[in-house]
Specification:
It is a single chain. The protein is mainly alpha-helical and about 260 residues long. It is built from eleven helices and no strands. α2 runs antiparallel to α5 and α2 runs parallel beside α6. The longest helix has 24 residues.
């Protein structure tokens, strides 16, 4: 019986292999489609102009309605990444980025739930349907970075939420540090990263409110509220403040937060 058990395939390993094969197929399916975004080449031209002039293109150079108007462009780093890759690989670069975006979707779906749910057939089927549902949204412009990073942000947010009950500082660090690093990098790439900051404000209010109610109500506190450790609000606050300060390194500087 022990020998037969040893020879039996590991369900978790089989599910991981099946998920990897599914991911490869979805990456290929998403990567081979044609460029569909009408403003892709506008973004490429803007990045080329920034590199040619060694500037952040502070004034609108390609606007028919307001040429020469002040233009704090927040997505320039993402555009430069698009342009440099396109300059070297052509349209294959867009295929690479689409495949990477789908891989990030898959990573987000993989790490979000508890580990025990990863090995079930129903969970794998759900992952496939979710990836197919969102793959058409992968765009060949700076928005691609936000479309890829926001699901990963939510997955890491869920990991951080589950770590809130930990009293060990190292466990809190493992729970919150990846979320802070992702938010800081996202702020350098695309303006939609402001969504992440808003969500982190909500997380801080959520944890602070839970601690306050537990202090006031004691055992009468509703069970739906979390039981964060005393250090969890500090970890959540640093996860908000550190990326927000690093956001000033965006090529727009303070304008990143002051303009729409």
């Amino acid at each position: 019986a022990l020998a037969m058990a040893a020879q039996r395939p590991d369900p978790g390993r089989l599910s991981a292999v099946g998920y990897a094969l599914l991911l490869c197929g979805l990456c290929a399916l998403c990567a081979v489609r044609k460029v569909q975004d009408w403003d892709t080449f506008w973004h490429l031209r803007t990045a080329a102009e920034a590199l040619r002039t060694h500037s952040s293109v502070p004034r609108a150079s390609f606007s028919f309605s307001g040429p020469g108007a002040p233009w704090p462009y927040k997505d320039l780093l993402a555009e430069i990444i698009l342009y440099l890759g396109f300059e070297r690989l052509g349209y294959a670069w867009f295929a690479v980025l689409r495949a990477l975006a789908i891989a990030v979707y898959a990573a987000a779906l993989w790490i979000a739930p508890p580990a025990l749910r990863r090995s079930t057939t129903a969970w794998l089927l759900g992952l496939a349907l979710a990836l197919l549902a969102v793959s058409y949204r992968v765009a060949d412009r700076p928005m691609l970075f936000s479309l890829a990073l926001f699901p990963l942000f939510l997955a890491l947010l869920e990991r951080a939420r589950r770590a809130c009950a930990e009293t060990d500082p190292r466990a809190l660090w493992r729970g919150f540090a990846p979320l802070a690093l992702l938010q800081a990098g996202w702020l350098q790439l695309h303006r939609e990263a402001m969504i992440g900051l808003v969500v982190l404000v909500g997380l801080n209010l959520y944890l602070g409110g839970a601690l306050l109610l537990r202090g006031l109500l004691g055992e009468r506190t509703p069970q739906l509220l979390p039981r964060p450790s005393r250090r969890a609000p500090l970890a959540a606050l640093l996860t908000l403040l550190v990326p927000a300060l690093l956001g000033l390194l965006n090529l727009c500087g303070l304008q990143f937060y002051r303009t729409a």
